[in-house]
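User: I'm putting together a teaching handout on how multi-component assemblies are represented. Below are the sequence lines for each component of a complex, exactly as they appear in our records. Could you produce the 3D structure of the whole assembly as structure tokens, so the students can see both representations side by side? Please keep the chain order the same as the input.
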Amino acid sequence: MNEDEIQLVARARPDAPPYAPEAKAAARRGLVAAAATRGPSRPLWRRPPAMLLAGALAVAVAATVPALLTGPGTEPGPGREPAGKVVVALPKLAPVSATEVLGRAAKAVKAELEPRDDQFVKVESETMYGAFSGKSVNTETGETAPETRYLYRTKRVIWQSADGSREGSLRIEYLQPKAYPGWPIPEEADDEAGKVEMLRLPVCDPLPARLRTDHAALKRLPADAGGMRAHLYESARDGGSKGDEDEAAWTRVGDLLRENYMPAAQRAALFEAAATIPGVDAVQDAEDAAGRRGIGVGRVGPDGIREDLVFDPETYELLGERGIVVDEKRAESPKGSLVASTAQLSVTVADEAPAVPDDDASGCG
Amino acid sequence: MVTLAFPDRAATPAAPPIAPSAPLSALVATLASDAALIEESLADPDRFAGLFDRHADEIHRYAARRLDDVTAADDVTAETFLVAFRKRTRYDLTRSDARPWLYGIASKLISGHRRAETRRLKALARQAPERAADFEERSAERVTADGLRPALAAALAGLSSAERDLLLLVAWAELTYEEAAEALGIPIGTVRSRLSRTRTKIRRSLESHA
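Assistant: Of course. Below is the structure of the complete assembly, with chains in the same order as your input.
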């Protein structure tokens, strides 16, 4: 085979400038920060390319509502608000315990959907998460670009194969971003607003069973609280980071519910098991991204942010998730700031997922 | 500030051979692989930084060669590992070496900087013709970034991004055909046919500049 042209190109390979230690250290810090704010990763999450790091709660928080809910009555205003305005009151402990709320949520669970393996679970949601970019140094000019943060907002519709065997789709519509409380809103925050992305969710090699979240795998999870609790801790096992097991177990609770349909038996078991995780308590006056008020059940994570599941105060249905600053220092944002918020708007079953033309961004990685 | 456990892939000692009846050494070898590190990171995300320590320099070198500004190369490298981190649950754990996967991600990100790359290639192609003649007289080993032959730069600029991605993974990143296929998620047969087509295109482009 004639390799001449390839060799020609190989010989013309330019020298590479060295990787500046500051840039390399910044990249590593960014990666470590991303890792620190996450439990077991969620593969379908995707952020705009402008953002270097996912929000603190990008993985930990967002919600699934088992029921078919109608759209929210109150749309959050799309306009940009000053940082101070997104600060809400500090969570007050609810008069009921987390065990009670989760117990009621477990009892309220009704079987609504029965997706077949060849169908898709379609979930519509609205989300707000932090977009972080690390401090960076331009090695040529020596200029320093500051660390930035803002809250990016989206409407998402996801079609996921019930048993992971068919290609799914994800539609992301970017809404107007907001300032991250305590931080100036950077220029790049506006870049994505108004854009709509369609992404393929290709069929990939299956994950280890303990990390799967497709409907077929959820159906096989234990339907009793004890078994489910063991699963929550098992999916976070051999982490090596001792002391974080409870955090990882709570993260897994969110991962199982988010943009998903948890079968009724497993959902009830999950709520009961979640109540046994140390540090989990209930607060009143939690609100989801659609402005629906409810009871928050959650715990404070290592980043100083309380991650709540938000339940309807009457029906105990899961409405969404939210993240709220509890430790100002660790979160680097004023106490009481709302830094993540989601609302699950509908969960239905679909026979097909919309076809998406080949996009560069998708893949199994 | 950051101590790098694995300064360079080349400097990383080879894994010890696995004795047929020695589960311990098998375990050691397994732990040393990228796949093992990625698997550990599923439960303990912090472990993923080990992958950065092993391969960041190599990915940065590749990005810096393809893009005309070092800041863009810094961005691509940082983003490559963040994307990899997010996608790590989908990593095929039977592939012990994660470099093809990382190169694949980096290639996509470099495509996002296509303007910077095209600018580089066009700028090089515009260099005075004397430089091209000069190039002929220099030994191949002395070719540097500035010495990328203008006609060749023009030829590269004329390729589709899919062709350029593949060609440069093979020619510059020195991936094998199998690794390049893995990086780009295409069958090995496609690698062969695409490279063959690319070679023809380059040859024609060079002839037209001759």
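A couple of points students might notice: Residues 129 and 150 of chain B are 8 Å apart (CA to CA). Chain B touches chain A through 71 residues (CB under 8 Å).
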